[in-house]
TrEMBL record:
This is GREB1 protein. It comes from the Eukaryota. Residues 1-24 are annotated as: Disordered. The gene is Greb1. Residues 1-10 have a biased composition (Acidic residues). Residues 2-147 form the GREB1 N-terminal domain.
Length: 147
């Protein structure tokens, strides 16, 4: 069992900070549906593209406005009963290829996922994505998150 390392200077007795989205670094793309590198992540745009998915990862769709394509380590996704997902996150950007996002907060910022609630709530990952008979990536079954 691993515990998250505390940042230097943080006090365990300090009150929790209310959620605030950090502004992206200067020069980053902030357009909905695109990652900060400016690559299109919208399912409607990339459904016919070949996407490299590492072993152990699945393509899923994140949503508020557009269904965004994400590659997520399947160990952090629930089973069909909404259980057995490991705590934490591991994801890659399918747009620019950046790998190794270990926090959903960091990942949601990178893919410009505009959220009104705290982004570490991975319930914004809504659908499994599958290839249809024509080979196009389409929305599959709903990801079953339990309480």
């Amino acid at each position: 069992e691993e515990e998250e390392e505390e940042e230097e200077g943080s006090e365990s007795s300090s009150p929790p900070v209310s959620y605030q989205m950090k502004p992206p670094p200067e020069g980053c793309c902030t357009t909905d549906g695109f990652c900060q590198a400016g690559k299109d992540l919208r399912l409607v745009s990339i459904s016919n593209e070949h996407i490299e998915v590492p072993s152990g990862f699945l393509l899923v769709g994140a949503k508020p406005d557009h269904l965004l394509v994400c590659a997520v380590d399947k160990r952090f996704l629930p089973d069909d009963n909404g259980r057995n997902a490991l705590l934490g996150f591991s994801g890659n950007c399918v747009g620019c290829g950046k790998k190794g996002f270990c926090y959903f907060t960091e990942f949601s910022n990178h893919i410009n996922l505009k959220l009104t609630t705290q982004p570490k709530k991975q319930k914004h990952l809504k659908y499994y994505l599958v290839r249809n008979a024509q080979g196009a990536l389409t929305k599959g079954s709903v990801i079953c998150w339990k309480g």
